[in-house]
Amino acid sequence: xxxxxxxxxxxxxxxxxxLPVTGRSAAFQCEACHNHWIISGDSLAPLQVWRAAPPEGxxxxxxxxxxxxxxxxxxGIRGGxxxxxxxxxxxxxxxxxxxxRELSHLSARIGDGTFRIFVPxxxxxxxxxxxxxxxxxxxxQPSFRARRQTEPDRPVMxxxxxxxxxxxxxxxxxxxxxxxxxxxxxxxxxxxLNTSPAPRMVELPFERRGASLRSLYGGFExxxxxxxxxxxxxxxxx
Length: 238
Ligand SMILES: [Zn+2]
What we know:
32% of the residues lie in helices and 23% in strands. The chain has helices at 74-86, 93-110, 127-140, 162-175, 179-182, 187-190, 224-227, 233-236, and strands spanning 27-29, 36-40, 43-47, 49-52, 63-73, 114-120, 146-148, 200-209, 212-215, 221-223. Helix 1 (74-86) runs antiparallel to helix 2 (93-110) and helix 3 crosses helix 4 (162-175). It is globular, with a radius of gyration of 20 Å. Zinc ion binds at residues 12, 14-15, 17, 30, 32-33, 35.
């Protein structure tokens, strides 16, 4: 270490306008051309932001929170789980029966198509809460229509880049598994998810309800404090 600190001005990679640096967000929106950028390692990478429409008929303006959505192949995941379960230690017959039953429920839930894992991208109040929110959305597998978010003055409050999100995928996926399977031997060590290399940044709608936020997809509630720093002031004041 030579004690020198390099300070660089962040500029939009398309039009060269200096980017507004805000709080804890690692993502920025150019005020001139409205494109989004994210700090990734030592450089600035373009970021496509998608915004999920609230369910039809929802009145009012939801609060949007960003998630990295990582796609995995359902059949591949089930293969990985089954392979990891093969080496399970001998347990009581009742436990084995229970695991088998839960495993078949799980296989049905994952299916053969695309299975999406949701990693919260907003600044984490704490890691456990983060994993829990990711787990709830991943269990729900919401279907929504998403559009590119290119409106001005809508920076995405993202504090996690795609590579950091990829490191949380396994933890979130494992949290969605039945306990009997989580407990199973060194299953967690052996499990490998075959995920897509290109996570997508999607903002999902939440409704403010007093001190909590209710997910408009899945219907679960989370403490508003978890995401307070990620909610733009005008929405927080509502
Ligand atoms: Zn620009």
